[in-house]
Amino acid sequence: MEYEFRRNSLDGTAIARFSMDHEALGQWFSEELANDGQRYEQICEAMAQLRSGKLNNWRLVGADLTLELDREQARVYANVLGFDEEHDLDESMSMYDAESESYCGLEDFEQALLSWHKFLNRHGE
């Protein structure tokens, strides 16, 4: 999984861009986490409890996206996907899900989270 962080040249907001199949993670970092230090600390605490075995899974519901963590992976998904697996769509009508749902290993997520935090601290947020 590859990613980069940069600033919007118009308003200076931080933007996270993640590689194909991980786009929802970029949206989550940019819009749901942004520069919320309290939320960052909450997620770090949850990851520590997952690693120590005190938790099996953890969820943070945001305005548009939800973050789910378990001992092995992180999942980000849109709160309103609009379709469930019971609906069979014609192949020409299939949805591109990478922008509405992404998975990665917990260690990869933690590394991205730390990198995001460092990026924001380096650039004055």
Note the main attributes of this structure:
125 residues; alpha+beta; four-stranded antiparallel beta sheet; two-stranded antiparallel ribbon; 3 helices
Describe this structure in words.
- By secondary structure, the protein is α+β, with helices and mostly antiparallel strands.
- The protein has one domain (3-84, 94-122).
- It has three helices and six strands, in the order ββααββββα.
- The chain has a four-stranded antiparallel sheet. The protein has a two-stranded antiparallel ribbon with strand order 1-2.
- A hairpin with a 3-residue loop joins β3 (57-61) and β4 (65-70).
- It holds the Pfam family UPF0231.
State the low-pLDDT regions, or none: 83-87
- Tell me the Rg in angstroms: 15 Å
Shape: globular
Number of helices: 3
Which series of helices and strands comes N to C? EEHHEEEEH
Question: How would you classify the helix and strand content by structural class?
Answer: alpha+beta
Strand content: 25-35%
- Major pleated sheet: 4 strands, antiparallel
Termini separation: 25 Å
Main sheet strand line-up: 3-4-5-6
Number of strands: 6
Helical amount? 25-40%
Average pLDDT works out at: 88
Q: Which helices and strands appear, and what pairs or packs with what?
A:
Blueprint: E1 3-7, E2 14-18, H1 23-33, H2 37-52, E3 57-61, E4 65-70, E5 73-78, E6 101-105, H3 106-122
Antiparallel strand pairs: 1-2, 3-4, 4-5, 5-6
Protein name: UPF0231 protein HC757_09625
Family: Belongs to the UPF0231 family.
InterPro entries: UPF0231 (IPR008249)
